[in-house]
Design brief:
By secondary structure, this protein is an alpha+beta fold. It contains 3 helices and 5 strands. Strands 1-5-4-3-2 form a 5-stranded mixed beta sheet, covered by helices on one side. The longest helix has 11 residues. It is elongated, with a radius of gyration of 14 Å. It starts with 5 loop residues before the first strand and ends in an 8-residue tail after the last strand.
């Protein structure tokens, strides 16, 4: 299996990360993580921060499924608030394509309570 050489991250995916999907306080409040904890004030800045931090060579193969090959990259993002957090990004390379397409990003788990 060949390593992807290019990343594709449409702005619509960053808009999704920036929007609140659930009631405050219940799991999955993406907006709180990106906006309040890390301090990003626009989807464009989230997208740029991820693309600055993750390169195609960083992608680790996870599995092959009906849609294509799934990859993951874990990185540390330093937000405008000065907070640093581990972020796990998910990518897919569809069958018969070579470009890794952004799927999602979620806060990563800390090892031993530290970054």
């Amino acid at each position: 299996m060949e390593q992807p050489k290019e990343l594709f991250f449409p702005i619509e995916k960053a808009i999704y990360l920036f929007n609140r999907a659930t009631r405050p306080g219940s799991g999955g409040d993406k907006r709180k993580f990106w906006q309040e904890i890390l301090g990003y004030d626009s989807p464009e800045k989230i997208r740029s921060a991820i693309l600055d931090s993750v390169k195609a060579r960083d992608l680790m193969f996870r599995e092959r499924d009906f849609y294509g090959n799934r990859y993951q990259a874990v990185t540390v993002l330093n937000g405008p608030t000065g907070a640093s957090r581990l972020v796990r990004t998910g990518w897919i390379v569809r069958h018969n394509e070579k470009v890794a397409r952004f799927v999602t990003a979620v806060p990563g788990k800390r090892q031993g309570g530290k970054l």
